[in-house]
Design goal:
Helices cover 20% and strands 36% of the residues. With 220 residues, the chain is α/β, with parallel strands linked by helices. The protein has two domains: 14-140, Thiamin pyrophosphokinase, catalytic domain (Rossmann fold), CATH 3.40.50; 150-218, Thiamin pyrophosphokinase, thiamin-binding domain (Jelly Rolls), CATH 2.60.120.320. Strands 1, 2, 3, 4, 5, 6, 7, 8, 9, 10, 11, 12 and 13 form a 13-stranded mixed sheet that branches. It starts with 13 loop residues before the first strand and ends with a strand.
């Protein structure tokens, strides 16, 4: 896989490559074209190097045998960020790093699959950054992001849309979904909006008054 393009623009989303299940090379290539700034979590670096991706930042707590000079030589110029705080995941640390660098948005891959605890933590952790960073998680079967209190987007008929609450979400209204929501509440573990779909070609509208609501665009 070729390295990402050179043009820098802080209005473009950064890309974080985590250490979950790999996505297709097609998806990764598309995201690299849109994301000129690439952050890799330390546990994934060897997998990333095999794909010949140019990395801007390597971030993590690193182990005792970590050789920073080795990675700097083969990925020059490379910024290495040591984040030893064990109270946060490496993905959360990467989000905080991008916020400090004033990035407005980030795409994330390799954050799902493999261990279920990591997948759940990675998906739900994006809620705490909702007012600081626009975060979108991608894998080969879904696109995941938090919804603002009012969301509108055009979709083709039958596009699968899942609405997953983080905790409880109240006052949910929808338009142009096959299973409409009218002042409904969703609660993780009890009732979610999984596997809804777009009723007709056109705009959908989803509003909610309270809570953190994830939208997942899903495909098989």
């Amino acid at each position: 896989m070729s390295s990402h393009h050179i043009v820098r623009d802080d209005q473009e989303p950064a890309l974080i490559i985590a250490n979950g299940a790999a996505c297709s090379q097609e998806l990764l290539g598309q995201l690299l074209e849109w994301s000129p700034f690439v952050v890799v979590l330390d546990s994934a670096i060897e997998r990333v190097l095999e794909l010949e991706i140019k990395v801007d930042v390597l971030l993590g707590d690193f182990d005792s045998g970590f050789d920073a000079n080795y990675y700097k030589e083969i990925q020059h110029p490379l910024e290495i960020i040591h984040t030893p705080n064990q109270d946060k995941t490496d993905l959360e640390k990467a989000f905080e790093f991008l916020i400090e660098r004033n990035f407005p948005a980030v795409n994330v891959v390799w954050a799902t699959g493999k261990r279920a605890d990591h997948t759940i933590t990675n998906i739900t952790s994006i809620a705490k950054f909702r007012n600081q960073l626009k975060i979108v998680l991608f894998d080969d079967h879904s696109k995941i992001h938090l919804l603002p209190q009012k969301f509108q987007k055009w979709y083709p008929k039958n596009t699968v849309i899942s609405l997953i609450p983080i905790g409880e979400v109240h006052g949910i209204h929808s338009e142009n979904l096959f299973y409409p929501l009218k002042n409904d509440s969703l609660t993780i573990g009890y009732r979610t909006g999984s596997s809804n779909h777009v009723a007709e070609d056109g705009l959908i509208t989803i509003e909610h008054s309270e809570g953190d609501l994830l939208l997942m665009e899903c495909w098989d």
